[in-house]
Recover the amino acids of this structure.
């Protein structure tokens, strides 16, 4: 008697979705192709239904090594006379030390929450998070960086969470939609960075504008 195929869970679906996100970020598939495949991914019940979604994508490999930079030329240090009195110099060093300690303290407190975000974190860089159709909850983190969350055009977003010394922006995506529109909650947490929630149309226009500027 033939054994039934084992079912899959959200972990397998998220793994495939992450691979599709990377492929879309790298320009291998379009945003429309990603939306179509992501919808099929979250509707899949068996592994055989997931395999065709990434069959035409190359295997993930290690990132290429960065090209060598230009040779550095050592320069003689330039010395400037510090005309401040010793008390002023000590005060300046103490103030800088307090600021640095405060920044390190804030980063240490928020870093665990940032790194535990289920859609990943932007640390000292930028990240684009594509929200799949049907998703109702998205958690992102940011630490000295920026994250763009792209939601489907017919979805109404709402934001929550705290970004210390940063900002969370959601204009068109958070505007009221007709009754019955899909809802998604975007939770952003972190410090010294920004979270921006965009519709798919806004993101496409932004990418097109960037392409023309280049």
């Amino acid at each position: 008697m033939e054994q039934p195929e084992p079912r899959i869970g959200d972990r397998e679906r998220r793994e495939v979705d992450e691979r599709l996100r990377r492929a879309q970020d790298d320009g291998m598939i379009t945003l429309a192709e990603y939306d179509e495949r992501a919808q099929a991914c979250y509707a899949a019940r068996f592994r055989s239904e997931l395999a065709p979604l990434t069959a035409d994508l190359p295997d993930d490999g290690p990132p290429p090594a960065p090209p060598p930079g230009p040779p550095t030329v050592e320069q003689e240090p330039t010395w400037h006379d510090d005309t401040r009195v010793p008390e002023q110099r000590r005060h300046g060093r103490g103030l800088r030390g307090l600021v640095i300690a405060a920044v390190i303290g804030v980063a240490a407190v928020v870093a665990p929450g940032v790194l535990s975000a289920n859609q990943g974190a932007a640390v000292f860089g930028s990240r684009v998070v594509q929200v799949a159709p049907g998703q109702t909850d998205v958690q992102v983190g940011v630490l000295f960086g920026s994250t763009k969350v792209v939601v489907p055009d017919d979805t109404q977003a709402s934001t929550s969470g705290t970004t210390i010394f940063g900002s969370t922006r959601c204009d068109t995506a958070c505007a009221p939609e007709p009754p019955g529109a899909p809802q998604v909650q975007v939770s952003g947490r972190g410090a010294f960075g920004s979270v921006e929630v965009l519709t798919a149309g806004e993101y496409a226009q932004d990418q097109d504008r960037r392409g023309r500027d280049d």
Summary: The chain has a mean pLDDT of 79.
